[in-house]
Amino acid sequence: MENHEWYPATSPLPMATPSRRVLPRGETQTKSPSINESPRMNIRCIRTHHLRDHLDVPFGFSQWYYNTRNTLWVEIIAEDGTTGWGESYGPSEVYQAAINSFYAPRLLGQNAMATDVLWHLMWRSSLDFARGGVMMGAMSGIDMALWDLRGKALGQSVSELMGGRYVDQIPCYATGMYFKDMPESDLIASIVDEARSYQQQGFQALKIKVGKNLPFDIRQIESIRDALPNMQMMADSNHAFDLPEAIQIGRVLEENDFSWFEEPLSPEFEGQFRQLQDKLDIPIATGECEQTRYGFQRLLSTGGVQIAQPDLAYCGGPSEALKIRNLASSMGINVVPHCWGTMLNLAAATHFIASGYREPGRKEVASPLLEFDRTPNALRDELFDIPVVVQNGIAQVPTGPGLGVVVNQEKMKSFTVQQTELKA
Ligand SMILES: [Mg+2]
């Protein structure tokens, strides 16, 4: 492999230079510049923060159990001190190395406002050996931080940068009902109790896990529907089933009035999605393991997916999620992002949904849904001075600049496992 197109790591890309409006170091932009004053803000510093919280009670799903919560945050600081924050969904240690060792040296000195240009610089830099996977997950956190930074520099929220908000409030569905290490009959009772607690908190929709084993899954689906006859429900197997199993469970979900069947099949067997959909009426949702417009083009063109679920902290970031949404829109498919992690990703997903056009358009459009993970996570709940506000199951779209959430860096210290810093 020849790296014949590398640009020097700290030199600007050869591009037209916009008019400079550089603020003194440490001073923050306080008013929105006019179009003609669009600032160039070179990247001065990139930090990563690997954060970890230990769980009192492990919980699991069809693939593994969690006993800790981890996240990788990206902090990008421009020459005027404006700072953007982003999050990558996946293995924090690996992301930390990918960002600090590979991408950060190529981004220092570049114009932080040029989110799409920088996305494609990162894409071409790693395309030859990583068309996706953890390198794309690392890019996602960087891209999210750049959107936050650009919004702060321009005094606009990310949803405004994305084209404006169709809604200011978004109903959430509660993600929970994970498996715990206990007898199955006790587990079902525990899951039903947990579901009732979400109803009492005001949620009108929730999502359960399936894929433990078929007898358990069927008992769980029927028990929770009996307990909560009016709740909107979805089910997620995290790619646990083969095709005959998925058909069987899908029919049970239909009989119990579930709204979508998430990741019924492995993402490796794209052709099976169409075969499954031909057997079922329930909509098929998937995509949290998929990345980029190219990956989603292959997945959605099977005709077996009704709801696309990119994760903004993994699919390529907000920049790529917009392209995925445009692709899905051209096929008449709506996007309901997967959302896991902390308030950074939740804020990104909230802005993304708020700015999304629903296909097909109509005056009385169905409400979009925001995934709101309710499993224990101090990294989400304790580290933000300004979080995404969710009350009675309804999220307020943040109106502050950028992502509109504010990290408490003092509280962050006690959860920090490893921090890196690279300066221009
Ligand atoms: Mg899922």
Automatic annotation (TrEMBL):
Q: Which CDD domains match?
A: MR_like
What Pfam families does the database record attribute to this sequence?
Answer: MR_MLE_C (PF13378), MR_MLE_N (PF02746)
Stretch list, region Disordered: 1-39
Q: Mandelate racemase/muconate lactonizing enzyme C-terminal domain spans which residues?
A: 188-283
Polar residues bias locations: 27-39
Q: Which UniProt keywords apply?
A: Lyase
The protein's matches in PANTHER family, at most eight in alphabetical order, are given as: D-GALACTONATE DEHYDRATASE (PTHR48080:SF2), D-GALACTONATE DEHYDRATASE-RELATED (PTHR48080)
Query: Mind telling me what this protein is named?
Result: Mandelate racemase/muconate lactonizing enzyme family protein
Originating species: Aporhodopirellula aestuarii
